[in-house]
Design brief:
single chain; mainly alpha; Amino acid/polyamine transporter I; 19 helices
Length: 453
């Protein structure tokens, strides 16, 4: 009997995956906490960061196809040590992110029921979330395409619902945050600037679709098409969604973890109505979609780096049945579970933001070398065919790559460095700083260990 033809990732699957990966609904709360100046920051960063990054990742992803993604790009430009650092930062952010989203599950349930659950029931729900993700990531991206497409559709519907409720609320009841010219100008308040990194996070992830090149019908066309189409849709969705939250809640009262659901409750005038319940359930389902879409890319990069001796051997373990990187998946579950178990002992009242911010720091660090790698590969490897080529002079390309790099550095400073020494700031930022230092040191130990090839 002939073997069944392998399912292919269609263009619509690629576009929906971009939306599922890049558009993360749980980030809406922290961004809305910036206030009305978020609109300025969204537009500014979409132009100065999302556009350059999308163009650069389109060129690199179509020129250097394979499972390595940004690990491949940085390794080709700067050698194996830098590739190892990138693969470590890129991987470790994922279990931290997974732990932060797991913490949201009982919080959302508490918000709906009005009665907080105890430590053990909460921990059980959190660990169940983590290990469901681990189990699903044992299977191919094509087997999970319906989950990714479904999560993308739910995210869009949630955004449209929240934005639509925001318009209705603004017309009938007014807005919680008054719209004035001064409020729309950029805010340089330290607390607000610490959330700018979330907008950058919301603009990243396009390279994940590049790791699915082997499953695509025509990756050289589908990758740039999906990035451009997905990016335009995502930009519109984010701004519309931010408006809805800004109408409902004063920016200084927005919860980073449950701000989205609380906004729907306020806009509908109900704590447990049909709309609130449907949005809350849809929101929780999108958390699964986020993790599944990212796990497929992150695990492939970690396994690929391990095959090249730049990550520990456990990441090399693959399923004998479908060649999926089960070693990386299991490590995701173990690290996320450990983080959730020790979470109650961390001196930070907003645990979601603590772990989410730490994930942001490690994630943004993994992207810093990508932009100079783009410039170096253009210079060292000019004859390689580039199906998609970023247009412009050498000076223009340096500016195009330099601005996103600078923005990442600024975001890292405001997120992970205590810029004042009052007790509230130290309690909020120091755990992030300490965690980042620990994971950077662990990464250096891995990069500089003796490699067994």
């Amino acid at each position: 009997m002939s073997e069944a033809p392998k399912k292919k990732f269609r263009l619509i699957d690629a576009i929906m995956t971009v939306i599922c990966v890049v558009f993360v609904a749980e980030a809406a709360g922290p961004v809305a906490a910036i206030g009305n100046s978020q609109y300025f920051w969204w537009i500014f960063l979409l132009i100065t960061f999302l556009l350059p990054y999308g163009l650069i990742s389109s060129e690199l992803g179509t020129t250097y196809e394979g499972d390595g993604g940004l690990y491949d790009w940085v390794s080709k430009a700067f050698g194996k040590k830098w590739g190892g650092r990138v693969s470590w930062y890129y991987w470790i952010n994922f279990p931290l992110w997974m732990a932060s989203l797991a913490l949201m599950f009982p919080e959302v349930i508490n918000l709906l029921t009005g009665s907080p659950m105890g430590f053990l029931p909460s921990l059980l729900i959190e660990l169940t979330f983590v290990w469901i993700i681990v189990f699903i990531s044992f299977y191919s991206v094509c087997d999970s395409a319906w989950i990714l497409n479904g999560a993308a559709v739910i995210k869009i519907l949630i955004a449209l619902t929240l934005g639509g409720l925001g318009i209705y609320g603004a017309v009938t009841h007014g807005v919680a945050n008054e719209y004035t010219l001064s409020s729309l100008l950029p805010s340089f308040d330290l607390n607000s600037l610490s959330y700018i990194s979330v907008i950058l996070f919301n603009c990243l992830g396009f390279e994940v679709v590049c790791t699915f090149a082997g499953d695509m019908e025509n990756p050289k066309k589908q990758i740039p098409q999906s990035i451009i189409a997905g990016g335009l849709v995502i930009a519109a969705i984010y701004i519309f969604m931010a408006f809805g939250i800004g109408v409902a809640i004063p920016s200084d009262q927005i919860s980073t973890s449950t701000g989205l659901i609380a906004s729907v409750q306020l806009l509908t005038g109900s704590t447990r109505g049909i709309i609130v319940t449907v949005v809350a359930i849809g929101f929780l389902l999108t958390l699964f979609g986020n993790m599944i879409s990212w796990s497929l890319g992150v695990n492939n990069v970690a396994a690929y780096a391990a095959d090249n001796g730049d990550m520990p051997k456990i990441f090399k373990i693959r399923s004998k049945k479908n060649d999926m990187p089960v070693g990386a998946a299991i490590m995701n579950g173990l690290v996320a579970s450990l983080v959730l178990i020790i979470a109650p002992f961390i001196p930070n009242q907003d645990l979601f933001w603590c772990f989410f911010a730490l994930n942001l720091v490690m994630f943004l660090l993994s992207y810093l070398p990508v932009f100079p790698a783009f410039l170096k590969l253009r210079r060292l490897d000019p004859d390689t065919e580039r199906p998609f080529r970023v247009p412009g002079s050498s000076f223009f390309l340096k500016v195009l790559a330099g601005i996103p790099m600078m923005l990442i550095v600024v975001a890292l400073i405001f997120t992970a460095v205590p810029l004042s020494f009052d007790p509230e700031t130290l309690e909020g930022v120091l755990p992030i700083t300490i965690g980042a230092v620990i994971f950077i040191i662990l990464g250096e130990a891995i990069v500089n260990r003796k490699r067994d090839k």
